[in-house]
Amino acid sequence: MTTNDYASYIAGLPRVLAGAAALFRDGEGRVLLVEPNYREGWALPGGTIESATGETPRQAARRETLEEIGLDVEPGRLLAVDWVHGTGRPPIVAYVYDGGVLSGEQFRAIRVQEEELISWKLVEPEELATYLLGSLAFRVAASLDALATGRGALELENGRPVG
Fold it and tell me: What CATH number does domain 15-161 carry, 3.30.1300.10, 1.10.10.10, 3.90.79.10, 3.40.50.880?
């Protein structure tokens, strides 16, 4: 295969979007959610992985957290990887990392990125489905389960555990 053939082969491969987020909690177990201004529903702090720059999912979760809420927190362990089928868009592979339990000082330091976010709030785990749309509610619930049980990272499809 020539270099030109290889480049054509790579250009013709299917596209997959990739994102990463951090799951932050307070001392009472509530989950930190952010409210985007560009779509309905709430989300975890996170966003698109900038693969063109060589960014890894872990680096993206940290960068997006800093950009969106102003906190520079090293992500903990990987909790879940979710393959989300798309309608009218390529599939998404979404990584969720443990952001840890934030201190009162860290919560007071949160500053939302006004270009993308309206607000943030802490939500009880049993109320997450009220705020999170589609498979994201299942993804966050599965990630909380991974934290509670101490299991390794979960493989998910559309937010549901596989296997």
Answer: 3.90.79.10
